[in-house]
């Protein structure tokens, strides 16, 4: 935390962020603001800087210039990955990473944020509360009927939802999701859009996605990146009608 951070009411504010790899600008003066219960879809051609942007937000990559301000007071560019996760930023990579040999329910249980305020003497009550939270999370990610199955038996789409449930168990304020619809059936894709919309009622979600049908299902503001900067931003219809977006991305 410094005294010189720009003032912002956004949950996440990237301000003039640049990332340079061997002289190549993967991000070039990128600025972007995400609200507290906003879902944003990030689109753009290969190499536009989408992954690098996520890497900056999660502390995996340090920008050479710019600020990444979380909740108005934390400069993410000064924190390591563990501290950023602790602040409440969760990231879901494209490939699901669940504990295959454990049951669905145990995967969620293992991910629950420990409530340090609970005294050990309240153990029984804590267990009941824990059970309720697991039930709610399983319900949310549409896996209640699968709870006793080993995760290895789930479909690809169900594994993605399980991992989303595991991230939600950590109660993130901001969830970053990388191409969740890749490899999903049409039904799973539509269900995933519903799921993310529900999640974004209470927290911010940033989704990187190439599948335009899925982006349309999300029905949220879209940011198109190109050469490390924002090329266009707004409703999908407006962004997809933008000649520059058609030229570099949609028309290909
Ligand atoms: N560690 C690195 N070293 C050098 N160049 C890198 C590194 N990471 C990314 N780049 C380059 O930075 C640019 C942006 O890459 P990035 O992965 O952020 O794009 P992207 O929009 O996520 O693309 P895709 O849609 O293909 O995932 C690319 O040209 C990439 O080759």
TrEMBL record:
InterPro entries from the xrefs?
ABC_AA/LPS_Transport (IPR051120), ABC_transporter-like_ATP-bd (IPR003439), ABC_transptr_urea_ATP-bd_UrtD (IPR017781), BCA_ABC_TP_C (IPR032823), P-loop_NTPase (IPR027417)
Return one GO MF term. ATP hydrolysis activity
> Does the entry feature the keyword Signal, yes or no?
no
Show the GO cellular component annotation of the record: plasma membrane
Q: Give the matching Pfam families.
A: ABC_tran, BCA_ABC_TP_C
Q: What positions belong to coiled-coil segments?
A: none
Entry keywords, A to Z? ATP-binding, Nucleotide-binding, Transport
Under the heading NCBIfam families, the entry gives: urea_trans_UrtD
Q: What's the protein name?
A: Urea transport system ATP-binding protein
Source organism (scientific name): Enterovirga rhinocerotis
Please spell out the taxonomic lineage of the organism that makes this protein.
Bacteria, Pseudomonadati, Pseudomonadota, Alphaproteobacteria, Hyphomicrobiales
